[in-house]
Amino acid sequence: MAFIERSLVERMDTVLISGLLTFTGFWLATLAIYRIYLSPLSKFPGPKLAAFTSILHPDKTMKFDIRWDSPGAAQVTGPHELHRIRRTALNPFFSKHQVLLLWPYIREKRDKFCRRVDEYVETKKPLNLSKAFGCFSIDVVTEYAFGQSYNDLDNEHFFSGLSEVMDELLGRVHVITHLPWILSAVRALPEWVQGLLNPGMIVVRKYHGITSDKVRDIKEEKQKGEKMAGHKTILHELLESDLPSQELSVKRLSDESNILVGAGSDTIKHTLEVAAFHIVDNAMIQKTLREELVAAMPSRFDELTWAELEKLPYLSVVIQEALRLSYGISQRSPRISPKEGLQYKGKLIPAGFLVSMDAVHMHHNENIFPNSNEFSPERWLEDDGSGSKIISKRLQRYNIAFSRGTRQCVGMNLAYAELYLMLSTLFRRYEMQLYETGVDSVELWGDFFLPKAKPGTEGVRVLMKRLSE
């Protein structure tokens, strides 16, 4: 009897497993047939595997035969009231006028950067420019945001705990994108458990704690009516805005500040390292840029205003080309098709469907940027009709490193200020020679929200010399 019962149980288990496998197979087959042949989007050309699922290659961007006639063609969004409220409060602090007011603080970080670089000039040791740029960008954005820099430029070998842990966490960004509940689950765990699972979380907690403490200090300072210490910060701007009370909690302001620090550090670092590598790697580009800088600043330590730097045509197009090949973010940006749907080449994208595009494919469109893998600042220059050279307005339409529309990068003016100041200083004051560095140190290898170079590369490393007067 026991044998018969055991046999029946085993048979039922087999039937149950077979049933589940059959159902799963049927469900996947039905889903594949619908997505590939019956879906309203099935008429659009492209790899059939990509039509069925994107999960097999989440870190690679796949190219389709959908090309947009202009950089705003697919960027249609519905109302996002919360984003509008938050963005309205932030906009004044990132205006060009406000960045100009804080220009002396950016120059102060530039000066500290140069003092550290001079140490490598004296010792003749290789300098990791990528790490140095990372420290510079973090120190600028934290000074700008909190009135209190992290002072990463003071660290030995330009080590930045925040930069290191950001690189590590971005390696998991696709898992978090598809399974967002994982991040919430990890945050709910005790700190010591988080540390066991990922030591980087301890560093994240540390920096978040610093931010929260700064928010509390500024809120308390404001409530007591005390005189502001130092310069006005983003936190002061938000606390003086018309944001509702729930948007002014310590947690909310801390989260906003941490997002701004993350967004305003690695992107600038990458643009600077792309620019530096290609300028040093190409003698003609370096010669042309230096001649322009020497003409504008006869002495190594001459200073130009931001407005004066913007009038230097070759420096300006070098920056545009660096932005093109650094992309801003590499991940696809989703937009929602509007209520009436979106027509493209006679095909309808129904309302509510997500349409995504990315800067990588836009910036490598050979019809717009021929030989798109080549760093060529000259492509941006055009004649203004009087014999002078100006930046091509047509090409600027297709540079979406800062995105476009209502979701355009709020820190664009701060980013331009850093790029103009750092590159003009670096190539007016120093000569550089690449040290064991190839183009794979700055080329896009994979998309991890931000563009990442091939694993194993160590960034842009150079040997530094002072430029003679």
UniProtKB/TrEMBL annotation:
Protein family according to the UniProt entry: Belongs to the cytochrome P450 family.
The name this protein goes by in its record: Related to cytochrome P450
Annotated GO MF terms: heme binding; iron ion binding; monooxygenase activity; oxidoreductase activity, acting on paired donors, with incorporation or reduction of molecular oxygen
Coiled coil ranges: none
Keywords, alphabetical: Heme, Iron, Membrane, Metal-binding, Monooxygenase, Oxidoreductase, Transmembrane, Transmembrane helix
Required co-factors: heme
Transmembrane segments: 15-38
Short name of one Pfam family: p450
Positions annotated to bind heme: 409
UniProt-listed InterPro entries: Cyt_P450 (IPR001128), Cyt_P450_CS (IPR017972), Cyt_P450_E_grp-I (IPR002401), Cyt_P450_sf (IPR036396), Cytochrome_P450_monoxygenase (IPR050121)
Species whose genome carries this gene: Phialocephala subalpina
